[in-house]
Amino acid sequence: MPKERTITVELGDRSYRIVIGSGLLGGQFELAPYVHGPDCLIVSNETVAPLYLAALKQNLPGRDVSEVILPDGESFKTLASAASVIDGLVRAHANRDTTVIALGGGVVGDIAGFAAACYMRGVAFIQVPTTLLAQVDSSVGGKTGVNHADGKNLIGAFHQPQLVLIDTDTLQTLPARELRAGLAEVIKHGAIADADYFSWLETNMAGLLRGDFELLAAAIQRSCEIKAAVVAEDERERGMRALLNFGHTFGHAIENSLGYGEWLHGEAVAAGMVMAAALSQLEDAQFERLKVLLAAASLPIAPPLVGSGRMAAAMKLDKKVQSKVLRFVLLKRIGEACVTADYPAAILEEVLAMADAAAS
Amino acid sequence: MPKERTITVELGDRSYRIVIGSGLLGGQFELAPYVHGPDCLIVSNETVAPLYLAALKQNLPGRDVSEVILPDGESFKTLASAASVIDGLVRAHANRDTTVIALGGGVVGDIAGFAAACYMRGVAFIQVPTTLLAQVDSSVGGKTGVNHADGKNLIGAFHQPQLVLIDTDTLQTLPARELRAGLAEVIKHGAIADADYFSWLETNMAGLLRGDFELLAAAIQRSCEIKAAVVAEDERERGMRALLNFGHTFGHAIENSLGYGEWLHGEAVAAGMVMAAALSQLEDAQFERLKVLLAAASLPIAPPLVGSGRMAAAMKLDKKVQSKVLRFVLLKRIGEACVTADYPAAILEEVLAMADAAAS
């Protein structure tokens, strides 16, 4: 078995490596060659910093390291938090050759990456994702940003990291609920792009939930490979990258209707995928397989009862809406997705009605 | 004489045109083909909107036009102003295919461009600069951003416009002080890149100050050509683009020491160019020519008496500082500049001392 697994995101002069393995954060992987200037700023949150900040700092000998510790949670993924990271850079007298290091989950990575994109019109940054969701999805591909009161990720930038360092040991301290939320994105990758991977997940879900290290590392690798290939093809989401948003239009509407942070992003995406699959008019057996796999991961397979009207209103502002026509990522079958506005309006109404009463 | 003058900024698939002429804003130039989606948001300020907003809107028939009117002044070039533009886009339910149109001076263009860069990770924008400074400098090249309390333009993005539409008629309503401030950047272009242009400016400064339309249009064209060539060569300021910052390291320190908005940007750059020329140890006759030309434009040729210590402190945070070594754009001779950290420290002290007592 390899000591560490490496995937390259091929983006010309913005290419970078994803390195996956055990003990990397604390020194098994030498971080210093990726920090080009004399100083760096670590951005983390109040939950993750006590666990991993000291180890990460030891992996940066001779560097002038400062830090910004944010409160934990999606509700803090705001422009104000990004501004506080920028304030930290200003306080540290950071120059254009500074490096921002995001240590935490997707929220930390999105905020830190956006601050790095904006500070002096762009400085380097490194992702050190510590949640499964960030490791398999949000840390790869350069999407950064914060939420607006009226919509998720409405404020942001495409800004690729220099490196994604995935230390699988961090999953040992991840709450079970967050592990499951990360598995929603893992299942998504199988559903949209790789039927064999989906089958492998069906076989191994119990082991993944148990935290089996080898299985988790294998899933992280396969998910990162899928994501890296999509990003290499379509960095700025002008086409196929949108497929990664499977379940996200409904999922964002759920998060927006409930208030950010009530459900975890992965939980909302899980229910959103069931809704999108229903809109896809997938054949019954395939639809069942998706629901069964999500349920096996203890993920929700129906939206919360926020009301179909509220869901619909929330979707009006979704970023995936083009020219006010609602487009969705739908499944042709497990392993193949497409973006389309071609679906019966009546079925969309039925799907939204899942938020009015308990779904079967 | 040509009805309108056109320059192309060559940036591959991000190339765009600068169109210069009279009456363009109100319809002599058809704007609609550059607004691809059904809606757009015009960003302007309280001074410019009453003069030109109605005309610009008439040039957008059939489009769903909304607007955000900012207070006027450099002191409002803040993250909060950018957020208010984003709020306007959210209120208008703007999608990825919306277009932001900046109608105003450099402050409006920088804020609107930054908001366009961040909204949904980047939407289209058009510059309609109405001050000489914005027409010859800030509207071209894709630098967008806002100030931080501790430094100018510390928060921003590179985001190229789709079009720069320069209606020279707008200069008729520009206060004389702002016309002069714009001439500082015009003089800068001659000083760093084109000795013949510098000589032409020496010959024609009186006419330019008088507001001679043909002379102004010729200067705007030549300055935009110089700027466009530099930007095409080095979009992200990794090299020669930094030459455009001649006078700006000192200039920013002046603005920062006085408080933004006390002196106009162009005024601070004028004094900053004299300081940079002094640090360049330019030969006496050339140094005199620069001072005489700036004085002919009624621009300051010495910094305000804020104290050398304060100036030095302000420069610590300047974006042009790399790895804490102060680098400056210096002149080899009129028409040729370089970026260097190679200058006698004693001379820098002398130059900063100009802020301690009146300079000769």
Give a brief description:
The structure is a homodimer. The first copy, chain A, has about 350 residues and is α/β, with parallel strands linked by helices. Chain A is built from 13 helices and 11 strands.
**CATH structural architecture of the largest domain in chain A:** Up-down Bundle
What is the terminal-to-terminal distance of chain A?
Answer: 44 Å
Q: What's the number of structural domains of chain A?
A: 2
The tally of strands of chain A reads: 11
Relevant terms:
homodimer; about 350 residues; alpha/beta; Rossmann fold; Dehydroquinate synthase-like, alpha domain; two-stranded antiparallel ribbon; 13 helices
What would you say this structure looks like, in words?
- Two copies of one chain form a homodimer.
- Chain A is 44% helix and 19% strand.
- Chain A is an alpha/beta fold.
- Chain A folds into two domains: 4-173, Rossmann fold, CATH 3.40.50.1970; 176-355, Dehydroquinate synthase-like - alpha domain (Dehydroquinate synthase-like, alpha domain).
- Chain A has a seven-stranded mixed beta sheet, sandwiched between helices. The first copy, chain A, has a two-stranded antiparallel sheet with strand order 7-8. In chain A, strands 10-11 form a two-stranded antiparallel ribbon.
- In chain A, helix 9 (248-258) packs across helix 10 (265-279) and helix 10 (265-279) runs antiparallel to helix 13 (345-352).
- The longest helix of chain A is centred in the middle third of the chain and has 21 residues, at 213-233.
- The mean pLDDT of chain A is 94.
- At the A-B interface, helix 3, strand 7 and strand 8 of A face helix 3, strand 7 and strand 8 of B.
